[in-house]
Amino acid sequence: AGMRVAVVGAGVSGLAATKCCLDEGLEPTCFEQSQDIGGLWRYTEHIEAGRPSLYPSVISNTSKEMSAFSDFPCPEDFPVFLPNARFLDYLRRYAEHFGLREHIRFRTTVVSIRKHPDFATTGQWHVVTEADGKEVSHVFDAVMVCSGNFSKPSLPLHCFSGIERFQGQYFHSRQYKHPDVFQGKRVLVVGMGNSGVDIAVEASRVASKVTVCTSRGAWLVRRVFDHGYPWDMVFNTRLMSLIRNNLPGPLSRALLNYKVNQQFNHENYGLQPEKRYFLPVLNDDLPSYILTGRITIKPGVKEFKENTVVFHNCPEEEPIDIVVFCTGYEVSFPFLEESVVKVENKHASLYKYVFPAHLQKHTLAVLGLIRSLGGILPMTEMQARWVTRVFKGRRAKGSLPGFGLSFDEVLKTEYVVYMDTLASFIGAKPSVLRLLCRDPWLAFIIFFGPCTPYQYRLGGPGQWEGARQAILTQWDRTLKPTRTRVPAGSSSYFPSLLIVVGFLLLLAAVIFGF
């Protein structure tokens, strides 16, 4: 019999994990507590305990070509940035295409995962699940934890002095579904992540006043980037990544600073971040809403009073009716023992953000915790491809260095670098140089074009014969849904100047051994 693997959760990570297990000839059993797949992307009107909760207007932050599974491109008629219902549709097609449903047990909750008594020799795990009020215990050879980190809201009320006196309404962004609760009200949004900005923009269409307060500011990136191209297809290219990672730190940051301020000057909008580098917020509306006075940006909250709030460095009180705390989520694994994955003040000790560094057998992996400036889906899939190879023992990893990584550190992970690192562990990293001799046009697109997931299926284990074609047609699929009035010509996104500069850079790359 093959190696039995337990997969916890049937969201993006769980589906990728199940599929990669099947690819490697392992036997996955995926446990999903709800009645359907999709995890975060499955919208429900009511909020379910222990499950992520979406608001209806959520749209993917990464474009469809940059957030597709590497051997399953998005349908060409889907919009470039997928609304949550379309994203779920894509996930369903994927599950259907690779026959994943038969390996998923729905309405089954994982209660606990403990080391088997003979873990030291077998690396096995004791998994207890619960369905219809009945508990069942299983033994698995390995475990892939794919439960995500958007289920346990982080709401540190003790950090907001006077909140107990406040007489208005307040709730965590997880509770938010529709803007009508804000009708005619004065709204305060605390925190400036993606949800905070989304909610503020929606509220401002019906509220009498909307204020967003942030102690640390934020970089704001629009989905619609230079010349109207999707931001990530311009930002996450091998060329750009090479430049960002080989320039000295201050220069690289200055470049990023220049780039984000080119769209609009963050200082003038009260947004300039305190810290030099963390994940940008994606939103297309905020600058114009600030400019038209629909949204006001303020510093962090000093204290709440009965029906007003006072901000730091602002003497006057501001009257408010509703507060939305967009203060993010806590990472939690209620079914794991502390000793397996330690999470202390948002730190988890995970090698490459995946393997608990101190286990003597590497038979448990945590997927999809990573945050970076790129699509979570391809990263998770790459993690699953690597993990399943490690489970099979094909790749001796040597000893894993133990180190703690804070989740704020995770944010600094450069998308292309991380993908390449894991791909090189399994032998699936594309070599631009080798391709240059064999298939120069492809090498060219891979180096200068967007670093789409299909690049990691050109060779190595899990090679897919459609990868080259998927890469050559990636811009066609991007432009098809928007070029609806004019016939879609052949769409190449390379100004001639770029080609000239490109060849020079490619030469340099060859000389310096890229």
TrEMBL record:
InterPro entries: FAD/NAD-bd_sf (IPR036188), Flavin_mOase (IPR000960), Flavin_mOase-like (IPR020946), Flavin_mOase_1 (IPR002253), FMO-like (IPR050346). Pfam families: FMO-like. Its EC number is 1.14.13.148, 1.14.13.8. The chain crosses the membrane at residues 493-512. Keywords: Endoplasmic reticulum, FAD, Flavoprotein, Membrane, Monooxygenase, NADP, Oxidoreductase, Transmembrane, Transmembrane helix. It catalyses: trimethylamine + NADPH + O2 = trimethylamine N-oxide + NADP(+) + H2O; hypotaurine + NADH + O2 + H(+) = taurine + NAD(+) + H2O; hypotaurine + NADPH + O2 + H(+) = taurine + NADP(+) + H2O; N,N-dimethylaniline + NADPH + O2 + H(+) = N,N-dimethylaniline N-oxide + NADP(+) + H2O. It is an enzyme of class 1 (oxidoreductase). Its main location: endoplasmic reticulum. It is found in: Endoplasmic reticulum membrane. GO terms for cellular component: endoplasmic reticulum membrane. It is a single-pass membrane protein. SUPFAM superfamilies: FAD/NAD(P)-binding domain. One of its GO terms (molecular function) is NADP binding. It comes from the Eukaryota. Its cofactor is FAD. Belongs to the FMO family. PANTHER family: DIMETHYLANILINE MONOOXYGENASE (PTHR23023). Broad spectrum monooxygenase that catalyzes the oxygenation of a wide variety of nitrogen- and sulfur-containing compounds including xenobiotics. Catalyzes the S-oxygenation of hypotaurine to produce taurine, an organic osmolyte involved in cell volume regulation as well as a variety of cytoprotective and developmental processes. This is Flavin-containing monooxygenase 1. It comes from Formicarius rufipectus. The lineage of its organism: Eukaryota, Metazoa, Chordata, Craniata, Vertebrata. The gene is Fmo1.
